[in-house]
């Protein structure tokens, strides 16, 4: 099982292939935002990688980050836990002013079809 380390929260074993956004919530107990329900539409699920950043990303993530002019962050709704990684949870409910983090993302990455590209 991959190890997910979240700065300020600790290190957690997570099921291989689990979406990072769900691992942050379920295993690490992070109040991670995911306002669009994990569908790569809003960018509220941003994380910063300290180590273990995947070499690929979904085409949807690449396009959404470019559209918003975001660099140095990744969208946790578009990442699978396939190896050890360390992240900073930079997009949390605490301090956001939002009433809730958003509807729970599904287990599978959306939008379909998922196309993996170099980051």
Question: How many structural domains in the coordinates?
Answer: 1
The average pLDDT value, as a whole number, equals 96
Estimate the helix proportion, in percent.
10-25%
* Cα separation of the termini: 24 Å
Question: What is the number of helices?
Answer: 2
Strand order of the largest sheet: 2-1-6-3-5
Total beta-strand segments? 7
Order of helices and strands: EEHEEHEEE
The CATH class label is Alpha Beta
Low-confidence segments, ≥5 residues, pLDDT <50?
none
Bin the strand percentage: 15-25%
What does this structure look like?
The chain has a single domain (3-94, 108-118), classed as Beta-grasp domain (Ubiquitin-like (UB roll), Roll). Helix content is 14%, strand content 23%. It contains two helices and seven strands; from the N terminus they run ββαββαβββ.
Keywords:
119 residues, five-stranded mixed sheet, alpha+beta, Ubiquitin-like (UB roll)
Describe the SSE topology:
Blueprint lengths: L2 E4 L3 E4 L6 H7 L19 E6 L4 E3 H10 L5 E2 L9 E5 L26 E3 L1
Parallel strand pairs: 1-6
Antiparallel strand pairs: 1-2, 3-5, 3-6, 4-7
């Amino acid at each position: 099982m991959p190890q997910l380390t979240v700065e300020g929260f600790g290190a957690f074993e997570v099921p291989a292939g689990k979406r990072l956004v769900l691992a942050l919530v379920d295993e690490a107990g992070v109040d991670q935002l995911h306002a669009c329900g994990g569908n790569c539409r809003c960018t509220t699920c941003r994380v910063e990688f300290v180590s273990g950043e995947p070499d690929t990303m979904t085409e949807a993530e690449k396009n959404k980050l470019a559209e918003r002019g975001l660099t140095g962050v990744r969208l946790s709704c578009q990442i699978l836990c396939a190896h050890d990684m360390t992240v900073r949870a930079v997009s949390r409910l605490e301090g956001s002013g939002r009433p809730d983090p958003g509807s729970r993302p599904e287990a599978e990455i959306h939008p379909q079809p998922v196309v993996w590209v170099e980051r």
